[in-house]
Structures are given as C-alpha cells and as structure tokens.
Write a structure and sequence with these properties.
This protein has 265 residues and is α+β, with helices and mostly antiparallel strands. The protein is 42% helix and 18% strand. It has 10 helices and 9 strands. Strands 1-2-3-8-5-6-9 form a 7-stranded antiparallel beta sheet, with no helix packed on it. The chain has a two-stranded antiparallel ribbon with strand order 4-7. Helix 4 packs antiparallel against helix 5 and helix 8 packs across helix 9.
Length: 265
C-alpha cells in the first residue's frame, strides 16, 4: 500500500505525495495527488516543476472522461493548475519509464503527450481498464489499483535491477565525476553516456546538474547556510558559478528562491 510522505506542502492545491511499494522503488519515485472532492471557488496557480531525469504519467479525473498524459522535461517549466483539478500521477525515477513502460525518453520533445492521440503504447488498453476502475474509487483504492498495474508491468517485463541504476546512484553523489564512476563500474565514458542517454534520456552532465541544484534548493529553503557555502557543498567552484547555473535552471537567483520559499513570520 502507498504510504503518505508529504501532506499539503501546496495547501492551495491539496497536494499529497505517497511512497511506492518497495518492489518498485528502483523505478518509481512516488505517486502524487492534487485536488479534493470538496467544492471550491475556481482559482489558478502557477508552480515551477524542476527536472530530475524522472518522467510523469498523470491522470486527470476532473471531467467525465479521464485524460492521461505523459511528460518528460529537461528544463524547468512553469505549469498552471486549477484548485478544481483532480489529478493522480506516477513520478518515475530516472530509467523507470524506460524499463516499466518501454518509453525511449531521449526521442521525446519538451511537451505533454496525450495518450491515445499523440501515441498509443502497447500497455495503453490495460491502463485504460485500470483508470476506469479508479474513476469511481476513493484515493487509497486509486493508488492501490495504479500500483497493481505497475507491478503487472514489472512482472510482464521480467524486470531486474539495471546496471544503469548503479551508474545513476554513483553520479548523483555530488563530488563524483563521470570518469570516476565509469572506472568504478568498469565502463568506458562512451558506454556510460550512451546507456544513460538511452535509458534515462539525459547525459551524465545533465543528471549531475539536476541533482546538484536539487540539493541546493533544499539547503536554500530549509537552512540558513550561506549561499557561498551551499555553492561549495553542491560541487560548484565558487559563488558566481553557482549563481549563474542556478539562475539558468530556475529563472531566479538563489536569494530570490530562498526568500520565496522561506515562510513569512
């Protein structure tokens, strides 16, 4: 059963995040839900979605006919949500969509794909059957049904832990270089880059950038650590290099991000 991890860090959207079954943790980061069944005055909210080499399969139950989309982004995107939406989503770990769903991510553009129209994968009809069951169910049952569908995908694909997962775990250690990781795992740099691109849709440099900046965002939001110290802790040469990379990625400075994320007393 999915376990609640975070309850309402975005209270205006009734956001909740849930941990997956342990059998899926190599391929699934979490499930998340936005929206509630209570009636609210319609409002729109824009949130930044930061890439981390994961992908999302999202089911929108807001209308009579659910809409299923798949998205994989390599750049930060500002996305608008309504507080009247009701969305349930799978957030895949890097390589998860490739291994569970057979989706080759590096071939995808930066957009949301509508399943059944933009593309119809081999597992589409089994997912539709799952979604039809989910439609009249409470959230706990929806997550159970979705997870059972994922487990059936894992079984049908005879999934075992990929060596690429070991590569990713090594690369996201903030001070590990691509050459060091390749040497530790007995892979040439070219083999490592090719495998990561195929299974995760990103280069080693992109993956490391995502996780360095993810660590930086956490430190900025949850601590008073000086920005110069954060830069060094996250593998940047100096304050200026870090600020340039952070702004290019998030479209705001580290100080602006900290002020936006720090609760006002």
């Amino acid at each position: 059963m999915a376990i609640l991890l975070v309850n309402d860090p975005l209270p205006h959207l009734s956001f909740q995040k849930f941990a997956p079954d342990q059998r899926l943790t190599d391929w699934v980061q979490c499930y998340w839900k936005i929206g509630s069944t209570t009636t609210q005055t319609a409002q729109l909210f824009t949130e930044k979605l930061y890439p981390d080499a994961g992908a999302s399969l999202t089911i929108n139950f807001s209308n009579a006919t659910p809409v299923i989309t798949f998205a994989f982004n390599r750049q930060t995107q500002a996305t608008t949500f309504s507080n009247q939406d009701y969305l349930v989503s799978i957030r895949f770990a890097p390589t998860g969509a490739y291994h569970l769903l057979g989706i080759t991510l590096h071939e995808l553009a930066e957009e949301n794909y509508l399943l059944g129209e933009d593309f119809t994968p081999s597992w589409y009809h089994s997912l539709i059957a799952c979604v039809e069951q989910m439609q009249s169910s409470p959230l706990t049952s929806q997550l159970y049904l979705l997870e059972q569908w994922l487990l059936s995908q894992a079984i049908s694909n005879q999934l075992v832990k990929s060596n690429t997962i070991k590569v990713i775990k090594q690369l996201i250690q903030l001070n590990n270089s691509t050459s060091y990781v390749g040497k530790q795992l007995g892979l040439t740099r070219r083999t490592l880059e090719r495998r990561l691109k195929k299974e995760a849709g990103v280069s080693p440099a992109q993956l490391q950038q995502f996780y360095r900046l993810k660590a930086a965002r956490t430190l900025l939001a949850d601590s008073q650590t000086p920005i110069t110290d954060i830069a060094l802790q996250c593998g940047y040469y100096d304050h200026a290099h870090f600020c340039h990379a952070f702004h290019n990625f998030t479209f705001e400075t580290p100080l602006q991000y900290r002020k936006r994320k720090t609760p006002k007393v």
